[in-house]
Specification:
Helix content of chain A: under 10%
Largest sheet of chain A: 6 strands, mixed
Structural class of chain A: mainly beta
Number of strands of chain B: 11
Number of strands of chain A: 11
Helix content of chain B: under 10%
Strand content of chain B: over 45%
Number of helices of chain A: 0
Radius of gyration of chain A: 14 Å
Shape of chain B: globular
Strand content of chain A: over 45%
Order of helices and strands of chain A: EEEEEEEEEEE
Order of helices and strands of chain B: EEEEEEEEEEE
Oligomer: heterodimer
Number of helices of chain B: 0
Shape of chain A: globular
């Protein structure tokens, strides 16, 4: 089982609709969860992070975390063509030496259709 | 804003060459990371450093080494470049628990 799993897509959503991106993780000790957006040819940029169970909202973006189900999701409301990108889920893991690192999913490619 | 600068955007090197990829951050972050990104494989951690002269292997360290002599600079070294090291290399730095800031990446081609 991969440490962080995402549906690779592509996911196509009409403009103005809600885009729902999902991610599962395997390590129950994970405590920090991140969503990155990556445009083609660019580096990832952080859009949201969440540490506690429940929802966290930031503008059109909502991150949802369910630690019992080991599931984190990202909702994008009122989707815009500029939201078309690959979305990467990242989860913190602890190494054998107790240091923290982020492990990334392979990403979901989202296309917003005008 | 935190700035992470990678010295080269594109590099072409020959098989067997020793290659240095440089990364500098300007926000006094303790932690710095080197990833490579390949289609279908996502971002994979090569090495990271949590303090000056302190380092730890990531998930795919074979064929690579790193150097961190100063807090702001983290170098990735390909000891003897091979064609399977052709990839996009991304450097990142972080302030504990607040996510990573990535550099713009170096696309390395080994011929």
């Amino acid at each position: 089982q991969k440490e962080v799993e995402q549906n690779s897509g592509p996911l196509s959503v009409p403009e103005g609709a809600i885009a729902s991106l999902n991610c599962t993780y395997s390590d129950r000790g994970s405590q920090s969860f991140f969503w990155y957006r990556q445009y083609s040819g660019k580096s990832p940029e952080l859009i949201m992070f969440i540490y506690s169970n429940g929802d966290k909202e930031d503008g059109r973006f909502t991150a949802q975390l369910n630690k019992a189900s080991q599931y984190v999701s990202l909702l994008i409301r009122d989707s815009q063509p500029s939201d078309s990108a690959t979305y990467l889920c990242a989860v913190n893991l602890y190494t054998n030496f107790g240091n923290e690192k982020l492990t990334f999913g392979t990403g979901t490619r989202l296309t917003i259709i005008p | 804003d935190v700035k992470v600068t990678q010295s080269s955007r594109y590099l072409v090197k020959r098989t067997g060459e020793k290659v240095f990829l440089e990364c500098v951050q300007d926000m006094d972050h303790e932690n710095m990371f080197w990833y490579r990104q390949d289609p279908g494989l996502g971002l994979r951690l090569i090495y990271f450093s949590y303090d000056v002269k302190m380092k730890e292997k990531g998930d795919i360290p074979e064929g690579y080494s790193v150097s961190r002599e100063k807090k702001e600079r983290f170098s990735l070294i390909l000891e003897s470049a091979s064609t399977n090291q052709t990839s996009m290399y991304l450097c990142a730095s972080s302030l504990y628990k607040y996510g990573y800031t990535f550099g713009s990446g170096t696309r390395l081609t080994v011929v």
